[in-house]
Design a protein that fits this description.
With 336 residues, the chain is an alpha+beta fold. The protein has 2 domains: 6-123, Beta-Lactamase (2-Layer Sandwich), CATH 3.30.450; 128-333, Histidine kinase-like ATPase, C-terminal domain (Heat Shock Protein 90, 2-Layer Sandwich). Helix content is 45%, strand content 26%. The protein contains 11 helices and 12 strands. The chain has helices at 6-21, 40-46, 50-53, 68-78, 125-162, 166-189, 197-205, 225-245, 247-250, 295-307, 329-333; strands at residues 25-30, 35-38, 83-91, 97-108, 114-123, 195-196, 214-217, 222-223, 254-263, 269-278, 310-317, 320-328. The strands form 3 sheets. The protein has a 5-stranded antiparallel sheet, with helices on both faces. It has a 5-stranded mixed sheet with strand order 7-9-10-12-11. Helix 6 (166-189) runs antiparallel to helix 7 and helix 7 packs parallel to helix 8 (225-245). The longest helix is centred in the middle third of the chain and has 38 residues, at 125-162. It starts with 5 loop residues before the first helix and ends with a helix.
């Protein structure tokens, strides 16, 4: 009377438990591509209960345009090859697709004859989605870096044309690049979703000191990245002028930066932003002499309003500087 091989029986039980508890779909099929076993993970992944899947062709899981994969897999299995992991697409019961990584190995009987194949399928949908997001992010970063380079090259050119000498050029260029960097920091901290107008103004005005002379007020407005960068440039140029010739240089007078939201004659929502600088004593409060239009004037009067599809005015008097910007709110706030 034969003695039962208890070790083999325990091994089979252990293997079956491992297969059934696996998070990966494990399916066996014969050489005619007919499914012979189907674990719980396969049911979760593909939506078919075991009683519906077993006895059916595995091709029911393969999209029409990928049916040739099964022919190639069976031919390789028959020759004794193990099909190394490869990424492909499979079908669920509801007709939706799923990205999977497949590893396929031959199954042999006790005599060593190949009688089928085992397939291990791992759901890589999340990994593929992460790859897609990374590719989108890289394209977005590439786009933004190119835009930044264009802005920086423009700053270099305009600063060089208007600087009195190499030292002034270096100092002005450094300050303007640092201003861009401050706006960039705000955008990075928000994952490029934008920044509030209040935060942007504080960020740029604070570097000049004399915060007690500056009042900032207005409703909450979250700017898109384009508005952050261009309004940041304008606030920097106005602050730089004030630190040279105005309130922030004299420590006398006051600066108010206010904005409000209204509507134009066509019913479009409008942002009105005003920088108002008032000195208590007569000093040369000016961006530049009227006979010399510097880069700061170009930025606040032309570059920024053009970039924001708005209009700006700059009023310069011996004891007063007023810069006003009017732009459609959607141009400042809608994602760019």
């Amino acid at each position: 009377m034969p003695v039962p091989d208890l070790f083999d029986e325990h091994s089979r039980f252990l293997l079956a438990a491992i297969v059934e508890s696996s998070f990966d779909a494990i399916v066996s099929k014969d050489l005619n591509s007919v499914i012979r076993s189907w674990n719980a993970a396969a049911e979760r992944m593909f939506g078919y209960p075991a009683e519906e899947a077993i006895g059916k062709s595995v091709t029911m899981l393969i999209p029409e345009n990928l049916q040739s994969e099964e022919v190639d897999i069976i031919n390789r299995i028959k020759s004794g090859e193990r099909v190394e992991s490869f990424e492909t697409v499979r079908l669920r019961r509801d007709g939706s697709t799923i990205n999977v990584s497949l590893t396929i190995s031959p199954i042999r009987n006790a005599q060593g004859t190949i009688i089928g194949a085992s397939k291990i399928a791992r759901d890589i949908t999340q990994a593929k989605e992460a790859e897609r997001r990374i590719r989108l992010l890289l394209r977005e970063v590439n786009h933004r870096v190119k835009n930044q380079f264009a802005v920086i090259l423009s700053i270099i050119r305009e600063t060089s044309d208007r600087a009195a000498g190499p030292e002034e050029f270096q100092a002005q260029l450094r300050d303007r690049i640092m201003a861009l960097s401050r706006s960039h920091d705000l955008l990075v901290n928000s994952d490029w979703s934008g920044a509030s107008l209040l935060e942007l103004i504080h960020h740029h005005v604070g570097v000049f000191g004399h915060e007690q002379l500056v009042t900032i007020s207005g409703p909450l407005v979250t700017l898109n990245s384009n508005a952050v960068q261009h309004l940041g440039m304008a606030i920097h140029e106005l602050g730089t002028n004030s630190a040279k010739y105005g309130v922030l240089a004299q420590g006398l007078g006051a600066i108010s930066i206010d904005w409000k939201i209204g509507e134009d004659e066509d019913g479009n929502r409008i942002l009105d932003l005003v920088w108002r600088e008032e000195l208590l004593e007569t000093v040369a409060a000016r961006l530049e002499s009227p006979s010399r239009r510097g880069f700061g004037s170009v930025v606040v009067e032309r570059v920024v309003p053009l970039a924001l599809s708005g209009k700006a005015t700059l009023e310069r008097q011996p004891k007063r500087v007023i810069w006003s910007l009017r732009a459609r709110l959607d141009a400042l706030t809608q994602p760019d």
